[in-house]
Amino acid sequence: LKQVFHKDKTFRPKRKFEPGTQRFELHKRAQASLNSGVDLKAAVQLPSGEDQNDWVAVHVVDFFNRINLIYGTICEFCTERTCPVMSGGPKYEYRWQDDLKYKKPTALPAPQYMNLLMDWIEVQINNEDIFPTRVGKYKGGVL
């Protein structure tokens, strides 16, 4: 299990919401509804009186944390040798393009693709212009 949580791997620690904040309360509400066996449609429904952008942000961060954990459990089995292509089965191949280092869609081994993807998502989540940490402070309808 030590290898799964090794800092050099794609796994990253969970992004947390500060206790006492409205986002923390929204996160607790989302967790309670998802863990209670409730209908998923009802679980993700915007609570009355809450900001839609804040509610979506909580779920995006939670989804990122869950994907991160799942990938962390398999990354030791998916190496550049065992997973030389990032694919979605035999019909689909994912290629990386970031307009910085990879200006054109580029085939990469799955672990390298996932590292780039998780880094990119983390940058987006930590961008205050996209995901401000203060509730209700979205600029210009971003998100």
From TrEMBL:
Coiled coil: none
Residues annotated to bind Zn(2+): 78, 83
Pfam family, one: Mob1_phocein
GO molecular function terms noted in the UniProt entry: kinase activity
SUPFAM superfamilies: Mob1/phocein
Keyword Flavoprotein: no
InterPro entries according to UniProt: MOB_kinase_act_fam, MOB_kinase_act_sf
Keyword vocabulary terms for this entry: Kinase, Metal-binding, Transferase, Zinc
Protein name: MOB3B kinase
Species: Regulus satrapa (Golden-crowned kinglet)
